[in-house]
Amino acid sequence: MRGHTVSTANATALTPAPGSSPGQALSRREREQDSEFAALWHALDQLTDPEIPVVTLQEMGILRDVRRGADGRVEVVITPTYSGCPAMDQIADDVTATLRQQGVDGRVVTQLAPAWTTDWMTPQAREKLRAYGIAPPQCGSTAAGEAVLHFAPGSRGGLSRQRIEVACPQCGSVNTTETSHFGSTACKALYRCLDCMEPFDYFKSI
Ligand SMILES: [Zn+2]
Q1: What CA–CA distance (Å, rounded) separates 35 from 139?
Q2: What confidence tens digit (pLDDT) does each residue in 114-171 have?
Q3: Separation of 196 CA from ligand 1 center, angstroms?
Q4: Taking every pair of C-alpha atoms in the chain, what is the biggest distance, in angstroms?
Q5: 50 with 80: CB under 8 angstroms?
């Protein structure tokens, strides 16, 4: 086993695997290492989400690929988090500015399929969101205690209703309630913690 990790990495680098979330970050890194665009990748990795400036586009899973198009021009592929997300124009402008700074003749390609999902957000992005005061989206394979699908007791002991526990980013309490399905932006819901009474945004899971 020892000493054979490099060869498997080379093998997987050849398979794009567009929609697979767990291997997605790794294959992206592998593509970057072999890429003629390593410097551009590095510069693009500094760009942050206009709506949540503490997280980068790479951590959000918005920055998908850097490649050469059929006509030879460099293409930076981005996938919007939500269709109609107003931040996408700003993101495209930021990518264009980075291309210019790097002296690269390129264009931005917006890729809608496969659709972005909150599963593409890295663990770092979730942690940064929480520290920023936004409850991170919950997904199937989560870190301990973050997302608990909860069966609230329904009528007479029946498990009738599913409820998602959203932990307060301030105090960690799951004694929280949704006060508005749309928070500061369409992709967030407004919650209030019933223990520390602080309102907060919850980044909805999609
Ligand atoms: Zn709280």
Answers
A1: 31
A2: 999 999 999 999 999 999 999 998 764 444 334 444 444 444 444 434 467 899 999 9
A3: 4
A4: 68
A5: no
Element (H, E) at 110: strand 106-110
Q: Checking DSSP bridges between strand 199-203 and strand 134-135, what pairing results, if any?
A: parallel
Q: Which two tokens stand for residue 46?
A: 């500094």
Taking the centre of ligand 1 as the mean of its atom positions, its distance from the CA of residue 175, in whole angstroms, is 8
The Å distance, Cα 139 to ligand 1 centre, comes to 21
CA–centroid distance, residue 178 to ligand 1 (Å): 13
How many Å apart are CA 18 and CA 64, to the nearest integer?
9
pTM, full prediction: 0.72
Closest by CA to 204, choosing from 114, 147, 138, is 138
Whether the CA torsion 52, 54, 57, 59 is positive or negative: it is: negative
Ligand 1 centroid to 142 CA: how many Å? 20
